[in-house]
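Objective 1.3, modelling of assemblies. Example input:
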Amino acid sequence: MFITFEGPEGSGKTTQIQQLYTYLRGQGYPVMLTREPGGTSIGDQIRAILHDPRNTDMRPEAEILLYSASRAQLVAQVIRPALARGDIVLCDRYADSTLAYQGYGHGLDLDLLRRITAFATGGLIPDLTIYLDVPVEEGLRRKQAAYRAGTAEWNRMDAQTVEFHRRVREGYLRMAAAEPERWHIIDATAPPEAVQAAIRQVVEQRLISSHRVHREHRE
Ligand code: TMP
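Predicted structure (tokens):
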């Protein structure tokens, strides 16, 4: 099962995905955790270019190709082999981030982005996408606080305007509404323990039903 986490800035998804990873491992599931951009040696080098606040002149077209290059490496080197082994793969951001940030945020053509993404991933789509929703101002405030506390980076994307981040969030909500069987929206303004409990409930439900489908298939 391929599970992705999405959300605007400051949604807390990195903390939540790590807690889910620890929990599932504790339950005895084979599970791996990775993130975008990055997750491979080449991907981490691309991440450094993408997030460097000095790269203020980066074109949105270059940005999408760099994210896609990192994604192509990650899918081929890490995600597909793990899925083939039967692991649950948890990924902190995936192709929906491209549609949200480069598509809805920067206004690049959504169909073109979908084609580039399909090329980069060989058409790999998550089985489940957990979307942690937080209002833009609240998310940016949390991110700034984490940056000041030294627990988060302040990257090139964080420096975009509030309007940009509003379009990103709107885009996420639209995508979630368009594909409700894959997306699951969780209110990330709730206390972190409540958010984690809601995530576990959704994931365990999916794991149980996918186990049942596989068993029926075998019988
Ligand atoms: P994060 O590590 O805090 O999730 O930051 C990743 C940043 O990269 C975040 O601002 C969203 C951005 N991003 C895109 O703009 N497009 C993409 O395709 C991906 C994967 C991330």
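The pocket of thymidine-5'-phosphate is lined by residues 9, 36-37, 67, 93, 97-98, 101-102, 155, 157 (CB under 6 Å).
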